[in-house]
């Protein structure tokens, strides 16, 4: 029997969520090492020199960076393709994933989610409200204006759901956790696209474990995730096993 892949990471990370959703979509068997955010050790740094998640282990191969991992999954495994077949569409899909990982990551994670959720709950520090306000008033609306011009009114970007759809929508789940929701009257295409994509089984199936991680205390998260993972094993979307390592970056 083929050994399942291992993904090391936090369920609430948008980059980990992207990889897990792509594995779900392709039907790749995996197990998750649900480590606690922002804590790491030497073994983790050996696997991830930049101390970032996710890390994927496939036999004797270990790689980090969600884009690299998803490219490997698409080349090494069958199932639903993550990128469209047409070269021009593939280029556009890669660009939209890059836009999500960089621009949406900077705005929705570091300028909003990190400020409103991580700093007070993990570090006991106040949010940088000037940064938050600039993001909410100026930068996030500009990003939404761009997405509104790129996203379809119905369905997904290139027919079936794929990497670009997942990458974009993933960041808005974290924004929602920090009480930011898209104004559907101003950005209707983006609002319905994100809702539609997050509702797809490849992403929706991850919610129970995300809820465990968000609702448990830092001290109790590891055991809570182990217990939840045991309850959710044997599902069609992989398994979750106990944590062994820490991490430093989302």
Summary, kept brief:
The chain has helices at 14-26, 42-47, 66-76, 87-123, 129-150, 163-177, 188-198, 201-204, 207-215, 221-232; strands at 5-8, 30-33, 55-58, 61-64, 239-240.
Describe this structure in words.
The protein is built from 10 helices and 5 strands; from the N terminus they run βαβαββααααααααβ. By secondary structure, it is α/β, with parallel strands linked by helices. The protein folds into 2 domains: 5-81 and 207-240, Glutaredoxin (3-Layer(aba) Sandwich); 87-201, Glutathione S-transferase Yfyf (Class Pi), Chain A, domain 2, CATH 1.20.1050. A 5-stranded mixed beta sheet has the order 4-3-1-2-5. A hairpin with a 2-residue loop joins strand 3 (55-58) and strand 4 (61-64). Helix 1 runs parallel beside helix 3 and helix 1 packs across helix 6 (163-177). It starts with a strand and ends in a 10-residue tail after the last strand. The model is unreliable at 218-222 and 228-248 (pLDDT under 50).
- How many H/I helices? 10
Indicate the mean pLDDT.
86
Helix content: 55-70%
Kindly identify the CATH topology of the largest domain. Answer: Glutathione S-transferase Yfyf (Class Pi), Chain A, domain 2
Beta-strand content estimate: 5-15%
Key terms:
Glutaredoxin; Glutathione S-transferase Yfyf (Class Pi), Chain A, domain 2; 5-stranded mixed sheet; 2 domains; 56% helix; disordered C terminus; alpha/beta; 250 residues; 10 helices; 5 strands
Helices, strands, pairings?
Elements: E1 5-8, H1 14-26, E2 30-33, H2 42-47, E3 55-58, E4 61-64, H3 66-76, H4 87-123, H5 129-150, H6 163-177, H7 188-198, H8 201-204, H9 207-215, H10 221-232, E5 239-240
Parallel strand pairs: 1-2, 2-5
Antiparallel strand pairs: 1-3, 3-4
Helix pairs in contact: 1-3, 1-6, 4-5, 4-6, 6-7, 9-10
